[in-house]
Write a structure and sequence with these properties.
Blueprint (H helix, E strand, L loop, with lengths): L3 H17 L9 E5 L8 E4 L8 E2 L12 H14 L7 H5 L2 H13 L4 E5 L2 H8 L8 E6 L4 H10 L3 E5 L4 H10 L6 E7 L11 H11 L7 E6 L14 H5 L5 E5 L9 E5 L1 H10 L1 H4 L6 H14 L2 H23 L11 E5 L3 H13 L2 E2 L1 E3 L10 E5 L6 H12 L3
Parallel strand pairs: 3-12, 5-6, 5-7, 7-8, 8-9
Antiparallel strand pairs: 1-2, 4-10, 9-10, 11-14, 13-14
Helix pairs in contact: 2-12, 4-12, 5-6, 7-8, 13-15
């Protein structure tokens, strides 16, 4: 056996990625963190960059809880008590009290009957969505849904997949109307907040349309939302897109790895739905969960978000996000109107996107350029992500550097 033939093909693929400027494998390696001082937020040290300190504007930790001492202490104490890993999948011997405590708190946080934790939000979507889809099911999806939704639909074996233009509720209405009587069940799935842009689904309209049409499908319409970039980071109390649109969906999926700053993903729904998923979702049944220590840290993070301290972090996040977005508009950059801490700057050119990323790096700012196929051709952008751990001084510095790139 030899890999020689396929390695040649792999090398050609890698070379093409490098040529197009879309390679993702050359990751920055963080070697240390400097705590906030003198009006600056945290700074990061990178391998090969000596003592240079970098402002990180490409992190999903919207509330800065990864360095919160209470979260760190909760994880350390649970590791001392339970050890470093679960030891097995949960139905064999791997459920700990911290897993159950976390699930109970997540269900309470989202005002649902039950919750279920997976190893990641990607694994949650891949494990959950196909369980609602049969060979008699129509799946309806937003055109800009996350890669995990796309792959979960591919895995599902649905009778038909329909895609509506991004955020186009009129087209969703037309799809639901034109397919009446053709399928027993419909599953409508969307991101809450869209990770590349920071815009969001009108869940109030979406849910109303599904209720309007569900009588024409004998097994009804199930709404599934992945709000990984919304929960914890958006809404007056961090409940995400459901809070902003004042709506609840049937099945809500989110992550512990962004605003909650730990690791893992989860789903909340009715008790009967969660019991069904515990019996049928392979990425739960046959895969280890997060560690007991991670579960304890995540529980503490959710408790912080659901507190007066969490409300203050939400306010700070909104103020800083508005500062950056307003500054970009004043400087003539193209962005989207929103209150979310994802603040895109549309460059609409792969080469120029790469140039701006390099320019920012040279000025000790870490940012990520998004190009095809991560985003559609013509939608190339820099995605800035604001955190409550940033300061006004940080945002001012970023805007100053951007203004000098012309």
């Amino acid at each position: 056996m030899s890999l020689e033939q396929v390695e040649t093909l792999f090398s050609e693929h890698i070379a093409l990625q490098d040529q197009q400027g879309t390679a993702k494998r050359n990751e920055s390696v963080i070697t240390g963190v400097k705590t906030a001082v003198n009006g600056d937020g945290p700074r990061y040290f990178l391998a090969g960059q000596g003592n240079q300190e970098f402002l990180r504007m490409n992190c999903n930790s919207y509330l800065g809880l990864e360095n919160h001492q209470a979260v760190i202490q909760a994880e350390a104490q649970a590791a001392e008590l339970f050890g470093t890993g679960p030891g097995s999948v949960r139905f064999i011997s791997g459920t700990y009290q911290s897993h159950q405590d976390l699930e109970q708190k997540l269900a309470e946080f989202h005002a649902r009957e039950s919750a279920m934790v997976f190893s990641s939000a990607y694994a949650t979507m891949m494990g959950v969505l196909p369980r609602f889809i049969t060979q008699d099911t129509l799946v309806v999806s937003d055109a800009l849904n996350h890669n995990c939704i796309i792959n979960a639909i591919r895995l599902s074996g649905a009778a038909k997949k329909a895609i509506y233009a991004h955020l186009d509720m009129a087209e969703l209405d037309q799809i639901l109307q034109s397919n009446q009587g053709l399928y027993k069940r419909v599953c409508v799935v969307t991101d809450g907040v869209f990770s590349m842009r920071g815009d969001f689904a009108a869940l109030d309209t979406l849910v109303a349309l599904c209720k309007q049409h569900e009588q024409y499908y004998v097994e009804g319409i199930i709404t599934v939302v992945d709000d990984s970039h919304g929960v914890g980071a958006w809404g007056q109390t961090g409940r995400g897109t459901e809070e902003v649109t004042r709506t609840k969906v049937d099945v809500l999926i989110a992550t512990l790895g962004k605003a909650f700053a730990v690791n893992g993903g989860y789903v909340v729904s009715s008790a009967q739905v969660i019991d069904y998923l515990r019996e049928t979702a392979p990425l739960y049944i046959y895969s280890n969960s997060i560690t007991p220590a991670e579960a304890a840290a995540a529980l503490k993070a959710v408790q912080i978000v659901d507190s007066a301290e969490g409300l203050q972090k939400q306010r700070s996040l909104r103020i800083l996000s508005a500062q950056l977005r307003d500054g970009l508009v004043d400087a003539g950059f193209e962005t989207l109107a929103s209150e979310h801490p994802i603040v895109p700057v549309f460059i609409r050119d792969t080469a120029r996107t790469g140039m701006l990323v390099q320019y920012l790096f040279a000025h000790k700012i870490l940012a990520t350029g998004l190009t095809f196929p991560i985003v559609p051709n013509g939608e190339e952008e820099i995605r800035f992500q604001v955190s409550a751990s940033h300061t006004e001084q940080d945002i001012d510095y970023l805007l100053q550097v951007l203004n000098s790139f012309r």
